[in-house]
């Protein structure tokens, strides 16, 4: 009897892999690059501990939608402020950054992110701030939703004495 597993590793359905993920600026280590290029060795294989430490320190991007504001935080520490662009178009928040360096030490980094703006966000109200440690914070206030069929009593304001007296039917004749 054979000890060979029923399904060979190459025949198992594998989850899709992405060469680039949210953490574009750190690049891939040779170990990570080879795991993408080669089939999976074992499902129980653990990643090295050095990758876990880097994952805990990485902030990536976070999106918060609270009752009064919409906020996006991005880690852009590897880009200069003039290399970053933030704009709104067609109900989307678009963040782009591009860094190039040459003289035969060619380095190129770029990313583009599109976040749908929630209802109630005005394009003119979006504000971005870049902290000294390289975190880009983009915030926009949310308009409160309209109240559903609320009743309001309109006060009557008197402006002065009555100028015209109503005529009674007896006086008309």
UniProtKB/TrEMBL annotation:
Which of UniProt's keywords are assigned here? Answer: Metal-binding, Stress response, Zinc
The record's region (Disordered) falls at 137-173
Q: Which PROSITE patterns match?
A: SHSP (PS01031)
One Pfam family assigned to this protein is: HSP20
**GO BP field:** protein refolding; response to heat
Gene Ontology molecular function: any one: unfolded protein binding
Q: Could you say which residues bind Zn(2+) here?
A: 99, 104
Q: In its keyword annotation, does this UniProt entry include Glycoprotein? A: no
Supply the InterPro entries for this chain.
A-crystallin/Hsp20_dom, Alpha-crystallin/HSP_16, Alpha-crystallin/sHSP_animal, HSP20-like_chaperone
> SHSP domain location, by residue?
52-159
- Any one annotated GO CC term: cytoplasm
Family per UniProt? Belongs to the small heat shock protein (HSP20) family.
**What is the recorded name of this protein?**
(African queen) hypothetical protein
Which lineage ranks, top first, belong to the organism behind this chain?
Eukaryota, Metazoa, Ecdysozoa, Arthropoda, Hexapoda
């Amino acid at each position: 009897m054979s000890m060979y597993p029923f399904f060979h590793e190459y025949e198992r359905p594998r989850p899709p892999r992405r060469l680039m993920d949210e953490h574009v600026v750190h690049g891939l280590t040779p170990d990570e690059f080879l795991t993408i290029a080669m089939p999976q060795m074992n499902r129980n294989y653990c990643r090295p501990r050095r990758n876990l430490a880097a994952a805990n320190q990485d902030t990536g991007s976070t999106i918060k939608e609270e009752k009064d504001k919409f906020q996006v935080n991005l880690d852009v520490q590897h880009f200069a402020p003039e290399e970053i662009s933030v704009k709104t178009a067609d109900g989307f928040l678009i963040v782009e950054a591009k860094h190039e360096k040459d003289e035969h030490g060619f380095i190129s980094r770029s990313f583009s992110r599109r976040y749908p703006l929630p209802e109630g966000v005005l394009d003119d109200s979006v504000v971005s701030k870049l902290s000294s440690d390289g975190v880009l914070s983009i915030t926009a206030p949310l308009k409160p939703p309209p109240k559903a069929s609320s009743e309001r009593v309109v006060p009557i304001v008197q402006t002065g004495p009555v100028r015209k007296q109503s005529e009674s039917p007896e006086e008309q004749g």
